[in-house]
Amino acid sequence: MHHIAGRLIDGSLLVVRGLPRSGKTILSKAIADELGNSAFYFDGAAVNDANQKQEHALLRSEVERRLAEHRCAQLVFDSYGNAVRQSRGGVLHSQLYGQLVDGPGGRDIGALFTSRYADALDLRVSGSPLLGRADFIELPRLSEEDAAVLGLTVDQARSYYGDATSLAHAAFRSGALSGPDAVSDFVSANAPSYIRDLPSDAARVLLGGRSFSDADGAGRQALRGLGAEADGTYEVARAVTQSTLLTELRRRNPGWPKARADSVARFAELLDDVPNALWVDRYVYEKPDQLARFLKDVRSATDAPVRLLGKPVDDYANVRRDIGRSLEGIAGVDARVMAYSDVPRLHDRHLVSPSFDAGYILPTAGVILCMDDPGSAVVVRMSSITFNYEACWKRGNPLMPSVQ
């Protein structure tokens, strides 16, 4: 905590993300208290459409007052994601950018922002994104001192409660000094919130569809709050395995079915949940006839339109002919190939709705079309979407006449 306060005094912009009830607010208030009178703690969770104009003005004036009085200021902005998703979120973003970056005192103002993983922080507004200039840091890891308070060794504490301190704090509050049972009840009670907020890679690891080492940074960080890593391996904490979290996660994110009829039904169900659907898979066009047969069966189950975006190929003219012939006449289907510049960024398989910031991570097209065994493949809801898929679609090359 001391090093975070020191960086804020130096004028750094920092971001801490975490699951619900993971200690973000406790950390924010502790840092604000340590910094003293030059720091302003702002509760973004209290901002709503009715009071946001007044709250934004308060934020500006309090930071400016501290800067004038102390020649430096620190903004501790808790629950930034809630405040910035209100109707005037773009105005707030511009205000903060002007004050913390472009303003005459910007170099003397440090800021810490906290948010949940599911919060979309990269607003689609003109100008440079504020948090693009920030460093993302982790919540404090469980230490020997934390374990000692619980009467445990650090290895025991990590086995019970994971690497992060939030579950250990829950154990301390509940008096569960000798085991994880009471904390399992805490995890069960918060399971719906955890699942809504889990980064997709974290969910895939917990479901057995991805290794911890292959998860992205946000996924690994979230997992450390639910388990511990050591010697290249990851183990879910006992307080989590004895809770309902994993069972509920599997119920909401089931494995992909093996039977063709079930695969068709599952895909049709996802389309109904994702308006304006865009199916992104590099290899979706490998078997045009099987793809067409699958989509025809899907059309019998739903009339939701779907756009396909696959990998560009060398033999573009012949592929366009083959795909066009295969998909021609299937209502509500449009198809394009990715622009070469987008291929490195579109390496995962997604079903997304760009206009609704919603979607899923899918198994491969081979699994969905029942050409490959699904094994441990699962479909996982994406907690938030900040990538501009619609722009990728517009850059793509059509394979067939656009859907009218």
UniProtKB/TrEMBL annotation:
The lineage of its organism: Bacteria, Bacillati, Actinomycetota, Actinomycetes, Pseudonocardiales. SUPFAM superfamilies: P-loop containing nucleoside triphosphate hydrolases. Gene3D superfamilies: P-loop containing nucleotide triphosphate hydrolases. This is Uncharacterized protein. InterPro entries: P-loop_NTPase (IPR027417).
